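Record 1 of the preview.
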Amino acid sequence: MAYPPIVIALIEALGADVVSLRETIAGRRWADWSGEPADIPLALLRPRSTAQLSEAMSICTLYCQPVVVQGGLTGLAGGACTRASDVAISLERMTRICEVDPVSATLTAEAGATLESVQNAAAEAGLTFPFDLGARGSCTIGGNLATNAGGNRVIKYGMARDQVLGLEAVLANGDVIDSTHKMVKNNTGYDLRNLMIGSEGTLGIITRVVLRLRPPASAVATAWCGVGTYESVTGLLSLALRRLPTGVSAFEVMWPSFVDYMTTHVPDIRNPLDERHNFHVLMESVGTTEPEHQEVFQCFLEEALEEGLIENAALAQSKGDAAEFWRIRDSTAEFPVLMPDLIAFDVSFSIADIGRAAQECDAALRNTWPTSTVLTYGHLGDGNLHLIVQVPGADAATVDAVENLVYGIVRDYRGSVSAEHGIGSKKRDVLGHTRSVAELAAMRAIKAALDPHNILNPDKVLPA
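->
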């Protein structure tokens, strides 16, 4: 069988141990969770070191060969999907936890390490890596940073980029950027670290990271609140931030459509409050001393009740109670089974606008498609709104119409078409709803400077 010159060159330089041919990789999955199309690539590279990856990229540049980096394939924007003409790169062999430094409170890991392995290594050292996602067992830390992932606790700890002190990355031409320092303060010119984070593999390939660790929380208080108005929801958040000394670690808001659907369709979960409310808020706050923190949290809830910000609340009395509350919010993992043809949105607005924007989206969708199912929920503490839409019998034209409607409202409110899942191929045509012409031009200039042959994840992120 005749192989393309690029494949032959890669095998000669790196060996068959690193380079897998197309006919040997047909059984692998090549698409993420986005539903975007994917094909078996020309070859799969699985380097064991940054040096091997650097050599591979030098060769790919010489042949102007497009490459796509894949992590745990848990993305939702199509950023890791491959074409038949691509060479795929997996860092599944670069999974080492290189160092845990308890004095600096840092952890250094290779980019192929799973999020869960990072969390476990931090815990073994008596610290915690608070960044968390439901896909923790399979998503990789490199993928988390490449997409600047969010998660449930952004309100307290920030996005993925906020967990990083330094990183190492391989550029398109094989050059290696090594800024794996442990300093919080490093004000020395352009921040290449943050340029790589969130670039979805279009500017460079992250290979090693230095992560910030935190002291572990010894006390966790969790409550499920029923709230009457959106103004009361934002009032509850403001009160929590003022009254709780350690702030809020999660503030999840669910509209009745979401809670009713999940408690009806998912076995063994129930609404912690018997009565129906216009909004349901799952709150979490972490502290250092268990009895005192629980007392402060309970006093805060009593004050919120007295001020009329909440109508009722259930306070978790145990870790089991808290897990049951979170099961409702985390039941979104059932969507692929419950709604295999769903249309999902991950958008953001200013916190002040979310109530109106969500109501406008819901009304417009139900008026246009009366038989549709529309579920609304989100990490409201950081402005992130999720909409799940199902239109019975929807064809491609209907899907486009639904997306145009929702993204049009996002543009009207000057929101973001992607809050935490990136752009990939799925949202590149609507990136202009959020970014100005000047911003897009600057992005293209950066891409052209770092990847002049457009070989790093081409046709992703930037509009055509």
